[in-house]
Amino acid sequence: MLILTHDTANEFWHLPRERNLNVAQRRQLGEAWRLMTVGDGYVDTYYERATLRRLQDRWPQLSSPLHTVYKPGERKQTNERFVYHLQNADLGGCDLIRVWNDLLVASPELVFIQMAASLDLIPLIELGYEYCGSFFVDTTGTLRNRKLMTTPGDLLARANRYRGPGARKARLAAKYVLPGADSPREVVLVILLTLPRYWGGYNLSKPVLNHDIHLSAEGREILGFPTVAPDLCWPDAKVAVEYNGRDHFDDERSALDAKRRKALEASGYTVIEVTNSMIDSAASMDALAKRLAKLLHETPRLRVQIDDFPKKQEELRSALGLHM
After folding, report:
1. Which of 176, 189, 302, 304 is the most buried (most CB within 10 A)?
2. Is the dihedral of CA 174, 177, 182, 183 positive or negative?
3. Where are the domain boundaries for CATH 3.40.960 in the chain?
């Protein structure tokens, strides 16, 4: 039996598969881990070698060597085919997801913890947004849509139960992940706006992402639909942010965006449009944060005194692939 974990499992969850595994309907596979007694190998039988060949034929883009785990008492040496990671704690029923009869993959929650041991905090938060969002960037670099695989609450709950490398960082990162993001740039925007100032963020309260807002009668008449889902929204303050990442002018899409904006405004919302150029500019983001803080009545949160905040802001933007 093969178990894919760590970097390989993370790659697996970014494969451009013809269909996604239904992660929401996980089979209880804790028994599979318990039955693997000390001394068992992973590619020591004809069937396991056949599974390895099938895996390599099916998904050749998986990097080699493959990452897997072994139990205390076993002797495993990394080689050209496998990187072995010691797994001290037993894996629970939802930690392993069956791909084929002889192929299991670590769940998104477990992979999140495993990747925490090697990723810095900001990339780990970004990974959490992918696992909890409706998008992912596959192994070819293509942006794709998918159903939400997990939630920030589930990431945090699993990290709280885990005893091993990465658990502490995973717990910290999960607290700053929001569900429902649908693009990497949207994630960058939310991280900049909500991360605490001691990490270089603007410390604003967390919005809801791509959540249906019920429009007023006038708003429904303008848009022709009963609801609209702004990219970022603070419902209590009636503030919405719409991210416009298009690089070219599109008459049809621009007309729809204008209708969405008017429908939200008719429903009592203040709507702010954010573009790529604004995210790329630290000065523009400063101005956006000040405007949002005023609308949200959170101006004092921007005044928290942090030593060398400009340096921390620069470090955060660098970690997100941005410049000052």
Report:
1. 189
2. negative
3. 196-319
